[in-house]
User: What shape does this take?
Amino acid sequence: MKTTLFRCLAAASVMAVAAGTSVAKAEDFPTKPVEMTVLFGGTAQTIGQLLADLMSKNLAQPVVPVSRAGGGGSVGYQYVHGMPGDGYNIVWNSNSISTGYHGGKMDFDYKAFKPIAKISVEVPAFAVRADAGWKTLQDMIDDIKGSDKKLRVGASGKGSFTHLTTIALLDAMGIGDKVIHVPYDQGKAPVELLAGRIDAALQWPGQFISHAKAGTINILCVTSAKRVSSLPDTPTCDEAGAKGINITMWRGLAAPADTPDEVIAVLEEAAKKASESEQFVEASKTVGFERDFADHTAFGAEIASDDEKISALMEKLGLKQQ
Amino acid sequence: MDFLLNALATSFTPVSLVAVVAGTFIGLVFGSIPGLTFTVALALVLPVTFSLESTPAIALLLGTYIGGMTGGSVSAILLGIPGTPSAAATVLDGYQMTRRGKAALALGTAVIVSTVGGLISLLVMIVSVDFVARMALRFGPAEIFALVLFGLSTICGLSEKSLLRGMIAGVIGLMIMTMGLDEIDGVQRLTFGTITLQQGVNLLVAMIALFAVPHIIEAFVQYYRGEEQPVRAADVNVELPRWKDLRENFWLMIRCALMGTGIGAIPGTGGPIAAFLAYAHARRSSKDSIPLGKGSLAGVVAPETANNAVTGGTMIPLLALGIPGDPATAIVLSGLLIHGLVPGPMLFLEHPDTIYSVYIVIILSYIAVLAIQLFGIRLFVQLLRVPAHMLAVAITVMCGFGAFAVRNSVFDVYTMGILGVLAYALMRARIPLTPIILGLVLGPTLEREFRTAYILSEGDPMIYVSSVPAVIFLALAALVFAMPALKMLRKPKNREA
Amino acid sequence: MRAYHRDRITATALLAFAIVWCVVVWQTIPVGSPGSVGPRAFPLGLGILLAVLSGLLLVRAQVRKRIETAADEADDTPDDSTSMSGAHEGTYLRMVFSVFAVIVAYGFLMEKIGFVLATLVTIPAMMMLVLGIRDPLRIAGMAFGMTFGCWLVFGKLLGAYLPPGTWLSLF
Assistant: This one.
């Protein structure tokens, strides 16, 4: 019995080697399902699952979204980083690669991955309670500057993307020293805002829109350079008085650095078609993200420049670990 | 009324009905297998809803959620391993009932009271969604901290034999959960510089380890020593609950349902806390001839009513404020968003028919739960015919895969092995395991809310006693902790006090 | 082994663990920014609490030892409610180790050769090596039955993600 078992294992390992050598041919890629590692829950997971679903329709094999959350994304990045670069392991990434690396959570940075395509952009919105009486960002700044009150701002934990954005925004408004950062995990900031325990919150607009329509919350600005489609009447922070603010969260696909270019091209094409599909356009409106496709070269350049920006910002805040 | 008719018309289409039944079934299967929970199930059915109309999509998601919450009791009662964290409290008496040959009675009761709990919470939701949502808003970090501390005080009830050992167990549970990445300060704790440890110990994985691994070891030892209990025909009788059993526990059911709804409505709390608090409540109030912890029916009624009432409770902040209370409702929220239904105050004005569909779907899915489960019990109890060692082999495989499936991470399988052996050692050292679960469940919330409250108040400790709910829960917690200590003082010579 | 004896071992082990925990926490976790309860506070506080509680357990075991030793002089019946003969203790240790090894090996194989093959290998290994079952029909039945059942229900019907294996993947 034992010897049979060993013989089976030996035969299996021979097959493994054989399988390993036959995979590399790019022209018939993919010959087995492509695994897309998803790093977070919430909107990241929703968009990732939808994208995988739509990409599957454009490829010979399905794209399987596999959730590997934890450690602010570092767990999933590490997994994909450790996989062979054959195109069968891709990651649904975001600038968490930069916040994670500079925050000391990972020992590798964005250069460990090859960009495939940028898919979407999410723009945080800055909101306050309606009965605070602040109609515009300037109202709030004047009010805070004129009193000795500190502004309690809800964002995710220290070193997270929304936290960095909050600090950058308030610094640009000149009230960076009159702020208490209250860390909330993503979903809870609107409740705390409504209940009056915090004065302002910086989160994804989807959480605020219904309350803004109901008139209980005022959305003062969005942190991108252009207005966002879900909030056409809301000014950008730059317009509203926080000069020079342009911070957005991109999401896209990447593969281990040694993945061949032909394979990247196949995946890029599938992602492009998926992101142009009607269902994806529809979802971008309801889930609350901006479609923003960029090919692998443009995406690569953006990741690099964004990384520098985040690095500088974290350096300034004393959060940079490496 | 038009809206109601409209909702009825969309809910009673064949697609919607199939979606409810399928969702409930998937939920039940995932819920009843240790390690696979409704959160995993919801993530898997979410892509399916992309291509459905909105009502069938809601039906599929809510069915899965409700089925999963109910399914957790099946393995808790039959195997002594909770299928979901919310069913951990059900193990205490449910498994004892199975050992006394009353598995079917426990299972049947669990299904019926789950349904009652769920429907009561639905009723609360329909009549007072605005009021409850506004009340829930008042629960800030300080109040939730107090509530969680009160939840932790149930350790006293769970470790009757020795408060000291119970507290040691609870502290161990709390300690395990501090490992990993600290979300508030973005600091790594006890990760020893590795990325893998940043994910920390997952609650579900720890729970499987604590309940399943000692169980497997015991079963193997008994087989090895030839002491395995032969299966008796009496063990697998199908005795369903009678009207009398339910009537006796009627008021307990009502109280636990309201408790579950209330706790479910507070974001960031959820099923396990409700179930343990309900269990502790039953323990204090029970007049049953069989004491709780020894296989009392009230010990199944209380947690199962409460954890299903949580499903209705969590829908309140989800629909009224757009705030998901736990990872499972976050996925339900995604499903609603994809279909252009943005929960929040405007949903009630713009899409009242959707709200009615939600109500109808919840009712339908409880009908499905009742039908599937009451029929299924006859099959489930047949599991007890399987020799214990073969069952243990199957459980090992299921739990190994279950631990993996939680986060698709092999690290979790290893963690399960390590924690399982530690749990077994603690069990042999007569440290009770259930308080560890309590520590695991409540630890992260306890710490997060305490620290957030401190930041909010700019370091003023008065925030913890600055509101009525906070003071009430803190006082209750203090009372529960103080009582056994006082007893101990009065009887200093009490052995194993 | 007496109950108090066992308690003494338990308490000492827990106390040692708590002290090591506190030292490691103190050295590796930063205290955090002023004006907040930093990341170190809870782990450290819990470590200290565990140390205190296990210290109490140790004290109580000592007290009980004195009481029970005094009682023994009057009553000589051995207390065997919790004692365990050496042979049984051996079986337990063996099983604890085996179950641990099986779980770790299963996890490792699942990652390397995929869920299906790992399950096919682990079940017979567990039945033969740990339980000493020799009946090939039962082993094969259980191995193929469980594997096929799990593959069908989890992978195909419920659509859960089954690890495909990184060394070789057949399914």
